[in-house]
## 1
Amino acid sequence: MADQLYLSLWFPNFRLQALPDALVGVMRQFAVIAKDGKPGSEFGRVAASSTYPINWTESPTYQRIYVNDERAQTSADTEGSIIENAVAEATEQLHDDMAYEFEMRWMLWLPDAAGDLDIAWRLEPAKVRITGFGPDFDDGSYEQNGHIRVDFGLDTPWVLEDEELDTDAADRIKQNVEKLLAFTLSVEKHCGISSRLLWTESGEPLAEKLIARLQRLN
């Protein structure tokens, strides 16, 4: 069964005033992996940003959606979607009980089945949400979620539990895993974190799921 995948990050001696710079640092590392030589403005820029007060049941107090394609060439979105600019605008008012969420995209291999034909694999854009938490947001949930949490969405690009894997599928999954690990290690190297945790919503370790899935090929 598909599971939600997260990366939680904690920083030493962290204060709210440091959150914008920390977000920029993590998002820059994501942009490096997401762009990976790809042309176009969508990858490496912010697609949307939101600010949530108190907890996730509240409506956002700030939202902005950016247009990062040819339609944005003469638009303010072109400048606004630059990581530093988007973070500065969304965090202009820093509050202890706020969460600041930014949506970015990268390319992952996903299966595309058409009728009775063999499954074809395609590189498709996938959303990633990077959220910075104020210390009082959702009753201090940052202690479990991290000062910054990266939400990768469902873990199917890395485990595909409902699909029968052949060697081609295993290779595509490995490429997705390499991209996930490259981002995680880049954050660890460049962002000054004190600890990190890659975890799933069910609590089942991702590494164990990957090993069990790939062993079924043998």
## 2
Amino acid sequence: MAKITLGGNPVETSGNLPEIGSTISDFKLVATDLSTKTLEDFKGNNLILNIFPSVNTGICSAAVRQFNTEASELENTKVLCISRDLPFAQDQFCAAEGLENVVMLSDFRTGAFGKDYGLIMINGGFEGLLSRSVIVTDSNGKVLYTEQVPEIAQEPNYKAALDALHS
């Protein structure tokens, strides 16, 4: 269990992020067109998994915008923005913001992604939502970098996440 904070108040997650050097687990997430996406759909690409509670909060939307900007300059890399928001809300956000370089995915149907990756906040005001974290993998799914953001109101370390792809 990771121990993080929300507004300075202690929150625990359901587990821990994958270990550096391990291979990420397969997943079934819902795209904005309501299709199911799995790890196989992104095979052969480096991945940046930008995971957050809700696109309707300031920090979450800032992170999506930042990774959208950075992703436009990356080759062979997909940025997957994952939350438990409904796909309709994710799609509306991207349309309103003009975001085209990220893939929005939702864990709303089963919550299995959050459970499998240990990311569900199990107490606090955002209980049941995914904690803010980043997982970076190479094109074979090997974990190169992880960050469990210690305070939900903080942005992730974009530079460290992007640097992991160049090391």
